[in-house]
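BUG: 3D viewer hangs when loading the predicted structure for this chain

Environment: internal workstation, default settings.
Expected: structure renders.
Actual: progress bar stalls at 90%.

Input used:
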Amino acid sequence: RYRAMQERDGRAEELRSRLETSVTFLEGKAARVQQIQQSIIEEDKIIIARRTGLQSKDDSLREKLAQLRKWVGDGQAASLLEEATSRLLGLKNGAEAAARRRIEAEERKQQAVHASLIARQASDSTEERRQMAESRWGNRLEASSFATEAEVMECCLGPEEAARYEREASLHREREKELSSRLKHVEEQLNGATVTEEQWETATAQLRDCRARDEEALQNRAKAERDLEDLQHRHVRWMKLESNRIHLRSEAEKMSKLQSVFRGNAFVEYIAEEQLMQVSQSASRRLRFLTKQRYALEVDSSGGFVISDDANGGVKRPVSTLSGGETFLTSLSLALALSAQIQLRGQYPLQFFFLDEGFGTLDPELLDTVITSLEKLHHDQLSVGVISHVPELRARLPRKLVVLPAEQAGGGSRVVMETF
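Structure tokens produced before the viewer hung:
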């Protein structure tokens, strides 16, 4: 009975535990049901609002369709819009054409007004000349032996007869002028001398001979002109061949130069010049920074260095005109550029750079600029060592090897490392 009672207690405890779990589960489900019901109520509200909005949209759509149908009738709005657009484009084109025609009409009107003014001025001038001509005609008629204008007209020649007489007179004048010119030429040739009939016949025979030789010379000239034309064609062909030969010779010279360059040390010298230009450019940038954009370093045609004084209009100066401090800055810039171009880019970089003295020639401001540049140059792959006795420089260095001289009591020099 005791075991049976324990079993019943165990089952009762199990049922109590299951009941508590069921109550918690039912409470959760009840809360979920209540949440779902609340969500359903919210969704119903949204559905009702959207149905109301949809009904409003449908009413607006029906009103707009009715208004559209009232506007377009049984036709299609798209076709009517296309037709209206086409008519609008046609009206615009017509308006532009009308504007152009109006401008042209205005121009023609102005031209017509201008022509009318010119014609009016010409008419006035013609009337004035007519009156003057009538006045002169009356004066000459009174001064002549004719009594009336009819008598003058009877004595006038007809147009054809007057033209014929005019042509004959013109030919006579031209013939007379030609004969006078020939006669004058003959008189100049004779120079006061006389010519007999025999001399005239001899001169005539010589003239015929000269004319025959002149004809032969003309024939020879025509043949020479044909030969010249053929020679010119051949010359054009020769010029083309000569141009091709010169081009091929130039190419051959280039090939020969390349062969000589790669055979000797010229190519190496060319590469060295290019490397020198790169080093000088890098050193010039650093020198500009150290001298506050005053000096720049350049390479002349002979491969030497010159200084470009930008503070003095870019005047080129030899490096020998620099002061001691400026010379040190220039040497420092070249040394740093060489270190960057050669040591650090080699297969086995040295990663260390020494500067020995030269800082004593710098003023405090320039010394600060140099130290700042060296501090920027120092990084993980490059260390810069400075050998100097300048106190300002010693105070700026983070690590120093101080060489202590030998004492009188004995012992040699000592090296002490200082850091801060």
